[in-house]
Amino acid sequence: MKTHHSLTIAFTLAGASLVGMAPTQVSAQDIQEAVPLGIQAMNEKKWEQAQGIFAKIIESYGGDRGKRLFGGRFGIIYYNKGYAEQKMATNFKGLGGEENLAKAAEYSSLAKESFTKSYAIPSDDKSKNIYHKKSLLCKGQAHQALEEYEEAITSYKKFIAERGPRDKFNRGMYQINMAICHFRLDEPQIKEGIVFFDTSLKNKDRWKTPNTAIVSAFQALTRAMIATKNERALIDFLNQNRSAITLRPYQMVQFGPFFQKLATDALTADMQQAAYSLFALIPGTEVALSDLGGIKEKLALYPGLAIKEGSDFISKERISKWYSDLRDKDRSGDPPEVLALSALAFTHESNGNVRGAYRAYEQLELYFRDSTRREVNLYNLVRTSAVADELSVTVGYAQKFLAKYPESKYREPAANMMLSLLFANSKYEESELIAGEMIADLPKPSPLHDICLHVLGGSKFYLGKFAEARPHLEEHLKLYEKSKYSISANYFEASNLAQLQLWDQAGVKLKKFLKTYPDSTKNVFLAYALNDLANVHSYKGEDEIALENIARIESEFHESNVANTAYNLKGSILQNMGQLDEAKKYFLKVCDSVEDSDSDVNQGESLYRLVNLLGAEKIDKKPNANMKEALPYYDRFWKNHQNSPFKGLLAVAGMPALIEAGRDDEALSNLQLAITDMAERKKFSNLEKTIATYTVYYLQAQEKKKISPSNAISNLKLHYYTFPGIDKKNIRALALLRIAVIGVYEKSLKIASKEGNEALVSRIQAGINATFKDLKTAYPVEKLSDSVLIRIGDYLRTKSSAPRQALPYYQERLKHTQPNGRISAEFGIADIYGRAGSNAEMTKAIGMMQDVIKQKDTTKKNRAKAHSSMVQIYAKQGNWNKVVEEGVLYLEEHTKERTAIQQLLAQAYDEQKNYLKCIAINSNLAGNNRSNWDVSVPAMNRATELMWAHGTAAKDGRSKQQLAYEVAARYIKSSRAAFDEHKDEMSEIVRTTWKRIDARVMKWEDSGKIQTFAEMEKNNK
């Protein structure tokens, strides 16, 4: 009895305050000390110490011994041991990590065993096990911790079935745990679990169910519904229980990660509506901070460490920590919303919903720009928007990214995506602008410089800026021979040369391209290259070869986009070859292959070419009796192709047919509209020719109205100065109209000059001068077109008293990169510098001419002109050695300005005192230009003069003086009659020089140093 009494006392000393360590062995004599120590350790939450004490007791009284000795109360020892083990498992689980979780599972297993053994020792006549039934409840919790949910449910149910009225337990937690276990079964029993969950929620306040438990149950429910794809049920549950699940903002802070994880899982399961509902449970950072701040201020008024609110204790320390942590996250730029949106974006993209990811990243950029992950988020926004084909968004954010993070490791892919997307979507203006801004700062060679240079050159190519594109295209091929863009880069360069009309170079490049990349499955430009090469051969007059290339397109690529372009070209070639019926067939093939559409450029071209073919005034130099056949095609074009680039050409080509059909006013009106349209669209390439045609027909219309030529010109000038539809700011177009007026004046000037009408000549010249003055004063040089710049420059250089006024016009032309006509400006400047420039300017002009000669694409004609200019400038400088050098080169290769160059060469030899060569070249000049007094007379004068003084004797013994006399005397004798006839028409210097030669001949005859022709004739008798 004493033992029982001692044990009973020990078991009831749960609140006793005893000091000491757990014994290494527990015997019957000291159990009354060990049990209070274990209870004390539990009270102090020293679970490991408590578990060790109870384990030693059990070890000492293992098997049935403890039960035999102490009866039912020995079950309490097992219960307390299990309780301590359960607490230890909870602590290890809270620490996280693989090792700690393993320990948690280990102690949960020990707890399960302890509770099982406690339940195996019921109350008996010796003593009571007050935890006998509650062991079932705790055993269920151990099963639950070990994820043995069926066993847990069984234990919980058994507890409810067997418990007595005095077995108190937390009803709210029981309902929560039963709900969780049903939700987490391998085959979730959602309906049964919801019954328990609903019960706990309805009695939440009465049972004081902890918020953490409610969140755990909701998490289990959500996972179960995600696993079973039961989105509708989850949404319904949320809608019905939102108030119970949604806590105050400060409370929700701790559960934010849970809800984010649940929402992400829902997205992964493609339950988007449920996911958004879950994300909506998370309070905004500002709201949560405000609530936490209010609670913090409230707690500061209380002296204790915590206050109780419902089932929860609000700890000052915990609230302060939550507030501090959340505030720090917010200040760092990474509040919970950032994590939520990042997770949302990642999940969307993982599930293939790139557009959803793009929207999430955009929210991050719009509202969380202070995030420490902004660089990555912004790059991902660029990337996902590019995949989502949001062109303008990609470009905008890519530019922002590159400006904000110039050193980012994502710089290259971001720029690459932006440029690639722009270029692939034919946004060439933007591509050109952005690539042009970027390229200067890029290292070369480098991958980013590779694409940037490719896009810049390619954009300029597609925009028709062929001269500007050329250096970029050439540089790309030089730097990046093995670029992934090599096929397109090689095509752009070759085709660009063709667009620049550098036919020889283009032909070589295009042939090489076709040979290097012959596989059409890899080379998408193959058909286009064939068409370009056909164009090259056509322009070079090699029509048969051109047709061979088109034949390949016709047979191999008849379904390609370029096929109709090639057919139009073939029709044009056949037309030039005189095969008009075949040409018509190909033009019809194009225009009838598609529905009438203003956007189909090829169809518009084919209709124009049909009008040009059928509406020609003459065919084979004979009047065309069937011009009316062109009218249906003209009308079809005018109805359906108002935006075609061939509108002006069509209006010109259709003039004869419309006039013959009595549609004169319509024809002229349409041509006028075409000019207005071309001017408005800034299509200046064909505008000058179109204006010229309009001018002719306008004057014809004036003539039909019986208006005098002078009045017609006045009307034309007034009409062109106020041309309908052309904006006053469109300087290029208005300048071209004034140039057209000057052209009419110049034609009239020639007629008046031939007729000898001095008064009319004077009046017309005044009109020309006035119009040029208008051009010069009204329009700044930088606003004028290339052709107008040259026309004004040439006029000022050749027709004005101040040729240097032409320099700004030529210099402005040289600023423009278009090659056609550029050389005219260079020659103009060289001429001005050569005639009236300083020595430095003349040297500069020589350099310009040398550059012209060096250029690969300089024609033979222009090369000759450059050599000629250099000879003249060197002569002006008095650099006679260079005159000889360049003059000899010129005479070896060219003939057009042979006489002028020979004159300068003769002068150079004279200055060098190289008299024999001077004699030879002057003799040649005199002999080859006998009818040209201005050349032959001075040449003969100097040649014979030098022969007398510095010549050489003949092999037959005749002296140099004799030879000089004979040449001069024969010349005078043979030219006397012509001289007498034309001397009044000659210049004074030529007349004087001829007479000087005549006088010299007579002087030589009187000198006695030579044998005169009279003496020779007398001796021969």
TrEMBL record:
InterPro entries: TPR-like_helical_dom_sf, TPR_rpt. Residues 1-28 form the signal peptide. The keyword Chloroplast does not apply. Keywords: Signal. Transmembrane segments: none annotated. This is Outer membrane lipoprotein BamD-like domain-containing protein. It comes from Rubritalea profundi.
